[in-house]
Amino acid sequence: MKWTEDRSTNVDDRRASGGSGGALVGGGLGTIIIAAIVFFLGGDPSAILSSGVSNSGAQTEQRALTESEKKIGEMVKMITAENEETWTKIFAENGLQYQPARVVLFRSNTDSGCGMAQSAMGPFYCPTDQSVYMDMSFFNELEQKFGAKVTEFTVAYVMAHEMGHHVQNLLGTLNETDKARRSGKYSEAQLNQISVATELQADFYAGVWSRITGDREKSFIEPGDLESAISAAEAVGDDNIQKRSQGYVNQESFTHGSSEQRKEWFMKGYNSGDIKQGDTFSQLSR
């Protein structure tokens, strides 16, 4: 990934203030599995965050960022800026106005509009405060535990996926899926399908972003970048996560899509570059 000169002011870097030492409450194996599969959570994660994580009240540690951490911060500001420019362009072309999301970098845990955020949850989007929350240590887990090939563009893909949830929020998609979850009209299996469609659409939007940004910023995407994004998408497929965490696959319990589905929709977004071709909900209901 070739860096651009663009930088966003919508990045809140809290890494100089360490987490308060909060711990998972009501834990056990169930909580650990939930923490693993909540990665790339679609919709409002407040239920899991509020019920599963508690702030111990310990004082936060203040420290200076290392040079490596500062560079990562600059990269995140650059990727955020490229998301803002691309989505502003796409929205304008469709007669809409884009409202930028905020990106919060943190270490260990931090407060969010959806409750206490903790690194064990993985990156997520909170619609309440329209913010993406990321503890960069997750990418070590992604590589070591889930088998992804991690590069700078892996970070770009993850952020683009979360920005995809922000796009869903702005377009009203998350509101509709939340209504469905709260309505009591759908079975658990049907709600899982809605969740899968939500996640795959965010992957599709990440692909659209990659294509349009690459067209807008020549040479932004370099050889091997798409492969690293696909590697990350496949690594967090439900089937791969289930195999690694419990040793078998239960397709009915999928909430994010299989490795193949995540790859397919990311590449559909990239190949088409057309936001209007991302109706994952109709596709999965056939």
From TrEMBL:
Q: In terms of one coarse class, where is the protein primarily found? A: membrane
Q: Which domain of life is it from?
A: Bacteria
Has keyword Cytoplasm?
A: no
Membrane-crossing residue ranges in chain numbering: 21-41
Any idea which UniProt keywords this protein has?
Membrane, Transmembrane, Transmembrane helix
Identify its membrane topology class. Answer: Single-pass membrane protein
InterPro entries to which the protein is assigned, alphabetical: Uncharacterised_pept_Zn_put
Whether Cell membrane counts among this entry's keywords is no
What subcellular locations does the record give?
A: Membrane
- PANTHER family to which the protein is assigned, alphabetical: INNER MEMBRANE PROTEIN, PUTATIVE MEMBRANE PROTEIN YPFJ
Protein name per its UniProtKB record: Neutral zinc metallopeptidase
Protein's organism: Chryseobacterium terrae
Q: Lineage, please?
A: Bacteria, Pseudomonadati, Bacteroidota, Flavobacteriia, Flavobacteriales
